[in-house]
Amino acid sequence: HITVTGIPHQDAVVTWSPASRDMFFSELGLDSKKKTILFAPGGRVLYRHDGELLALLKRLRDAGEFGDVQFLVRCPPGDQVNTIAVDSDSHFIVDLPGTRLTKRKKDSELSPSDNTRLMNSLFHSDVILTIVSSMAIDGTIFDKPVIIIGFDPPGALTDTVSKFGTNPHFKKFLDTGLVTVSRSADELVEMVQRGLKTPNWNKAERDALVKKYAYRLDGHAAERVADAVLAHLG
Hints:
- The chain has about 230 residues and is of the alpha/beta class.
- The protein is about 40% helix and about 10% strand.
- It has one domain (about 15-230): 3-Layer(aba) Sandwich (Rossmann fold).
- The chain contains 9 helices and 8 strands.
- The strands form 2 sheets. A 6-stranded parallel sheet has the order 3-2-1-6-7-8, with helices on both faces. Strands 4-5 form a two-stranded antiparallel ribbon.
């Protein structure tokens, strides 16, 4: 038996009020006057070449392909990401959410403050980039241009993003035809430029994704989960 409940961590979106851009960006060390690209890497559990992707994004930014933007790199909770390429670059701020509970990479917990930081990060970003992450859905809820990076960066020899296209849950997401996927660095540049210039780009597709994947954004998903568990227990 399957009960559709919605996603509990999205309940807060209904009653939440964003922090001011100046205050939130100051806390993270970001410039509130600059366009901001939120990048959600895969993490070592899912993808081995986040470091090469960050190096590519840095090269593209340094070449002026995105304009005078800054990057907020939000790592997967409890996981590790190779950020060496951007550690000394003030245009890249790395966020490490969650609290590690054990030595196992994915045994971590997100606090309410972590979730609030996520919502502020999404709200105040101009474009969202990811490889394979629920951030693609979270971003659409906040009505942001979301771009899936669907190609491997130079030097990616031991792993490939193409494997995600065969994962049943992600394949179904891509097969909706509502998702924006870049298949090359040139295509990524074009899409990011378009998203920065025209925030409403692909809005109809984003709205359709929210209806399909963010079931009943009414603040009561957690209650429905609890009710379903209790009903199952009898």
